[in-house]
């Protein structure tokens, strides 16, 4: 039996997940106005390094909050009565940096030294772009956003390093100032673009100038008079953690299956 | 007449500057234990973008504080009774991004819309390295630290962009973990290194692998078994501002002539 709820609240979504009744293909476009978070769960001995990674690279890794070690309660400031072991639609597990499987909950995998980190997501500023009539191309095409590994090294932090990942949305060059201004306030959701255009692509080390061969997500269309605009992407901290090959179990949300927070998009803005 | 003070306090140094009696070649090695700050003074209309540049790139641009617009008083948390128009030993002026001259004070240049920004400096962590017996090579050689423009783009912020500048200190590979650990706590003074070694140089786009041709500062010696270790550098925000060519007058400290703060090195640590 599938469940259809009209205008579900974030708490509704989390409870559907907890009862294993959530069956949408992803959390995108659910709960307008509310923040969704990328999730990474690590052993506590790597928590200080991960916290430093986020502090030193706040554009791709905007840290919204974290749990106490071994306590699966999401901070109330982010979501009320939320349990990170159950309240995501779909999780992924990794051992020694290698993907193992997807799971509906991580009750068995959550340990007494587990710490969950919550990272801001571009859905927050995409809502603002759409409200300005600047509908992201991948939304128009009903695809996933294209993402690229860049050659830009992160500021290393303990065991974590690697390169920045960016997401890309094409816009007419004349609208670039408005695009930048619209996403700039979202400081805990990647904020303004990091770079744009052919010169930006070169600085980032991106060679796919027509948007047809992204490293992650789906191809897009860059139309006449448009430039590729690049934002920091929340896949960055995930790749950094996986590439670090820290020993043991790491958990994350499955792509597109984010934690839906009570927190509002305006709460991640200056 | 030159003035020689035994063990001057930061307030002593600032008053010498104010009275135009400071004649040391630089502020390096003065007032052990106290923070020295890079200084940038901008028209207020660019202040929000500069603040964002620092927030988005905290490793090369650690913002310690700022004045109110038109009020030359340094925040008391940084230094008591300090006036940014007079209390540096030497200033530089720039118009439309082009260097004009060095001045002993900027009383005439300070405007009602001027805002001064104070940026952390590597002197703070160099003291900690030296205390660990990890004396920086340029200190041993009595030279300036070598610095490099990198190919790493900053996360753009309004009118400001450009690339990260790094400083370099060579260390034996075996001591790298201790070097990283020693500077890691200095989060408002560039913190741990961003990269190291040949692979790090490649990631940063640095081709001078033997330390003989830095872009700024002096050549150094990389000895047998040593690797180049790279830290974010406070020259980054200065270059970003100058390269942006914002219209009008910009002021900064002259190289090596920093603002000596009452703030202690431990105050820029986590």
TrEMBL record, chains A, B:
GO terms for molecular function: D-glutamate cyclase activity. Belongs to the D-glutamate cyclase family. SUPFAM superfamilies: PSTPO5379-like. One of its GO terms (biological process) is glutamate metabolic process. This is DUF1445 domain-containing protein. The keyword Lyase applies. It comes from the Eukaryota. It comes from Leucosporidium creatinivorum. Keywords: Lyase. It holds the Pfam family D-Glu_cyclase.
């Amino acid at each position: 039996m599938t469940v259809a709820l009209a205008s579900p609240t974030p708490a509704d979504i989390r409870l559907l997940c907890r009862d294993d009744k959530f069956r949408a293909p992803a959390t995108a476009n659910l709960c307008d106005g509310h923040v969704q978070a990328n999730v990474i769960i690590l052993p506590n001995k790597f928590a200080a390094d991960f916290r430093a990674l986020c502090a030193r690279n706040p554009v791709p890794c905007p840290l919204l909050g974290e749990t106490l070690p071994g306590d699966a309660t999401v901070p109330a400031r982010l979501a009320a009565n939320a349990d990170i072991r159950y309240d995501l639609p779909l999780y992924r597990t990794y051992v020694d940096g290698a993907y193992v499987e997807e799971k509906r909950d991580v009750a068995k995998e959550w340990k007494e030294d587990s710490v969950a980190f919550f990272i801001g997501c571009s859905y927050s500023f995409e809502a603002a772009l759409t409200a300005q009539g600047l509908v992201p191309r991948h939304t128009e095409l009903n695809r996933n956003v294209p993402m690229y590994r860049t050659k830009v090294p992160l500021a290393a932090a303990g065991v974590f390093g690697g390169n920045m990942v960016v997401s890309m949305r094409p816009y007419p060059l004349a609208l670039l100032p408005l695009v930048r201004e619209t996403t700039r306030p979202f400081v805990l959701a990647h904020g303004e673009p990091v770079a744009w255009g052919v010169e930006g692509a070169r600085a980032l080390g991106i060679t796919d100038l027509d948007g047809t061969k992204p490293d992650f997500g789906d191809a897009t269309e860059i139309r006449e008079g448009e430039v590729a605009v690049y934002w920091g992407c929340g896949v960055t901290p995930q790749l950094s953690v996986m590439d670090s090959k820290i020993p043991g179990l790491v958990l994350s949300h499955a792509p597109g299956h984010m934690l839906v927070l009570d927190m509002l998009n305006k709460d991640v803005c200056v």
